[in-house]
Fold these 4 entries.
Entry 1:
Amino acid sequence: MMTQEQCTHRNNVQSSEKPQVYKVGIYGWRKRCLYFFVLLLMILILVNLALTIWILKVMNFTIDGMGNLRITEKGLKLEGDSEFLQPLYAKEIQSKPGRPLFLQSSRNVSVNIVNSNNQLLTQLVTGSSGFKARGKMFEVKSTSGKLLFSADEQEVVVGAERLRVMGAEGAVFSKSVETPHVRAEPFKELRLESPTRSLLMEAPKGIQILAEAGDIQAICRNELRLESKDGEISLDARRIRLMRLPEGKASTSSSSSGTRQTVYEVCVCPNGRLFLSQAGTGSTCQISNNVCL
């Protein structure tokens, strides 16, 4: 056991020692750096907030959309001119009611239809070189649904009541033409011409050439053939003129002297050639048959 003197001495020793104090917090240069970073962060937040408000104001952001772009129940609505720098994928592109849809490009506008394997089926290209369409079939219909024009690999169909060719040289066909009726415009002439080849017209039941208010001319360089295999060829007119027929020359012994002959008869050679012969009391075709040689 400690005596009273020892306890008193121990208390005096403890009271003579000073208590230790521990400081809590940031002091000195660390505190100044912290305040600086806090101030810098506040400045950045204010600048970022100001830029965000400026962008929202310039881009015209609203609850319904951005600028000319509006978000509706049916999709996106663009007002005014719009420019797309990348491909546009949309299910439907529609203009305002009563307003046209205008597509503009500095090069061309292409519309492609592909299948599930990304193979091209139909293509529509409008560019500086012209208008191009690619597909199995091309059709043009009227508002009532009547077919006006159709084209495929087999044939081209013109469904309009009248086909008008406005070119000065007319219509040029490299192959045959099949049509039930060829008619010129009122008060205009119809001209069928083959400058370097022959012109052939065939019909199983006949060919009718009609000019109600004008003349019919058939001009060729070599020969003009009218052929009927099972029927006949009829020339029905008030006056039939055979121009520039050759004149047969009679032999010297059988030639008659006297006044110049003004009456002739038309003779036919065995090969079908026609010629004129001076008329006499009898037929003079046998006498003037040197034309048939």
Note: The chain has two helices and eleven strands.
Entry 2:
Amino acid sequence: MASLLGRFCRKLVVPGSAHGSRMTSTTACGSETVKSLNLYSAINQALHIALETDPRSYVFGEDVGFGGVFRCTTGLAERFGKNRVFNTPLCEQGIVGFGIGLAAMGNRAVVEIQFADYIYPAFDQIVNEAAKFRYRSGNQFNCGGLTIRAPYGAVGHGGHYHSQSPEAFFCHVPGIKVVIPRSPREAKGAVVWLYRQAVEEVPEHDYMIPLSQAEVIREGSDITLVGWGAQLTVMEQACLDAEKEGISCELIDLKTLLPWDKETVEASVKKTGRLLISHEAPITGGFGAEISATILERCFLKLEAPVSRVCGLDTPFPLVFEPFYMPTKNKASSSSSLSSPSKNTHFLIHGFSRLL
């Protein structure tokens, strides 16, 4: 997704870097120095900062010692030592359980789950231990220093064990935060084809992105589109295509799913009168259903059409049929009720057939 920084900043060329596939251009924007990075490089930079600024920080998981399968931890073990960056056995329940204990002792534990699909063996540790740790002690102790990082969603060839989007499972659990960044800048401040495909100008210094605060990344007046993570790239293209038809789309990146920013979405829908939600996870029980129900409760009298969802299918994630499963910009929704009295000539866009 294109960075807005490029419109306001002066670009400089610097010598190439041997750090993976990190981009080598640097941008000066006022007093801020930024680099063009893809997502995995931005995460690597963030982990460097975390380990360097806090001696209580640790990074561990399967294969992280040599850089991980996506190279997000490249160079960390060499720089900070194998006592702080280390491989673990192939046991997700044990990995997360160890992270909970480490965080409970006042440390910062950054746990890597190699693919989000592998997180299910750790489900009990996450929902029954980590999420309830503070509550069960009456706030006497907690594991708030625990971060679990896992790349989710389609990779282009992953099939049903490397392409799942399990975010809705965890959004049902009070006590944890579920965050899905859409880009390198968001990822560093706050995960799989975005690792290397998306490039954005990212500040080199330490900074934070506020959680539970959605971002209106494109303003519009006819319809609100809501998504998160990699799907934002698809939805932005849909907005551009719709614009050619005279349809003004407001695009919102939810960023944090638990707790999510209801107020920003509500304000947008009250303005546009229409809402379309898209995510890669199957439609039934997906987080889009929660957004739909909430907006119906809050904006019923302002809605000019039913809320529409364009999501993954209620099937195991396929291998060779991945293109048919994914919610793309040309995929039609089961709902075709986005018609507008003010644009009755051609605003019935058949769900996503012209929007996504």
Note: The longest strand covers residues 275-282.
Entry 3:
Amino acid sequence: MAGAVRWGGPGPRPLLLLLGAAAVSLVGAQVTSETKEVPENKPADIPCSAYRSSWNNPRIEWKFQKGSSLVLFYYGGELTEPYKNRVQFSPTTIHFSTVTRQDTGKYICEVVGDSSQIAKSEVNLIVQVPPSKPVAHVPTSATIGSKAVLRCTETDGSPPPTFRWYKDSMLMPTDPKTSLTFRNSSYTLDPATGELIFEPLSGFDTGDYYCEATNNVGSPQKSDVIHMEASEVNVGGIVAAVVVLLMVLALAAFGVWFAYSRGYFSKRKDATGKKVIYSQPSHRSEGEFKQTSSFLV
């Protein structure tokens, strides 16, 4: 995780850079942590359990962490943008008038007393969003004996949904060997990723498939139905195609040979490379001495 935080305590506040996977920590801090789930577009209160009323003039800072991003949103007694118009601050709580899915993340409250006492609390806020209609990625045809991968995807649900698969409207168990209906099939099913893998694929696996996404927020959502056909390799068709191809090539070769043998691809020339036109002699008596043939160049 990479980000910047400010260190509390007397004197100037140096900027600390957190590198790699180092965790945000305050030396000697008392740390509490909890998780809250709030429906989207509803108000939310994020408690600061680190606050101590017995501490004299404590200084409070709030940070928001989401992935590798760390934002300082309450510092020096003021809310920063864009929280000024969305959040109400009190020493023990920050109040959101309404939350959206972008507010999902970790809220960190750090409290420093004037005697260098330090406390820290964290709240993991999950803004609940029902899943949208998932998309089923199913091959329409696959070869028996091969590996076939089916995937189910959904991007809106919070918390992230889990997935179930149906074949011919029947729920597929995670382990096919536990079901009389699916025991002849060989597959693995991961509810967290929505991946269904047949290895090897069998003729039994032909059918209509769809997936379902659910996160217990709103109603489960189903994908469209896609038919997958498991078929044998068509050896006869492949052999026939090869025979036809060989016949075509043989006919083409014969045609080229025949054309060459008839002289369609060449013209007669004399030794100098010039064209020669030869005329046949006419019938004459043996006593006549005349030119019986002529060469025109």
Note: The mean pLDDT is 81.
Entry 4:
Amino acid sequence: MFTTTGSRGLYKAPLSKGLLLVLNGLTVMLTLLPQYQELFVYNLQAVTLHHQVWRLLCGRLVCLDVKDSFCSSLLIYNFRIFERRFGSRKFASFLLGTWCLSALMDFLLAQAFQNLFDYEVEELPSGLLAPVFSLFVPFYLSIPRMPVTQVLGHIHITNKSLVYVVGLQLLTSSPFMWLLALSGLISGGLYHSDFLRLQKILFVPSWVSRAGRFILEPLFSSSQPTNETPLGMGATLDIQRQQRMDILDQQYVVKQSDRSGLLQWTRLFPSLRHRGQNRPPMQPHPQAHTHQSTQQPLLDNSPVAEEQVARLVEMGFSRTDALEALRASNNDINMATNFLLQH
């Protein structure tokens, strides 16, 4: 489960959605038509010796390995928070800048590897891999680290752990994937730090952004999500919040194994929260004259720290959702973050 990208799927992330649909569609097409895969092989020798520059474009966009395509798609879906935060144009400029920088970095690293170990790198894994690895730079620097739970009492699990696990899986999928990963991380660091004013040199022009907004955005934009359970159907807002928190508990807390088992998993994976630990006692509420529930709203009037609201807004959530989540979680920033990520 990814816990840093916010809820609402691909809403306000048309570029990420377009990359997922188009690139994965091409991967499936090439899997069904293997006779055309040779055109998309990332062959360094063909570029340098035979001047097939077009291989830089074809070989560095479409994955030929389904596993690489799956892992990179998971990472692109996770990193869509940057498109929401900075906008599609800046997100596209980052991908364009790191794509160009990593293309040069691939050849430099391959040449350095040949000089050090006397081994010539002929081919590299195909796909939009180096720019995906470059996104780990702003992910590491700008996404806050929220503790989730502990395994065996010593191994800390955070909201960023699974993202690194998927990146490690992608890193170990091919022998020379480490070269693309190193190239992407170097390129991402250079572009993110605006080294030599790279952000002023490698960017998406405004006219291209306007053209994409009118032509491509209607094709890949996602509609704004709505609440699953409307109000006025016998369920008040406080009941909906409680139901959502119950679902969140069911997803996070590992169930206890069968009584005949040797391991008690609840001891290895402690509960993520203790319901009602910090909640003030409920006050009696007069019975309503309708058939609706008379349960008191959950802390609707409790104060919420603006600093916590600001941190959630920086992660891509709306202010309204952040306030609701903090009130529903009794002002617990970690639980509020996990609550928003799941709904």
Note: The chain has two domains: 14-220, 304-342.
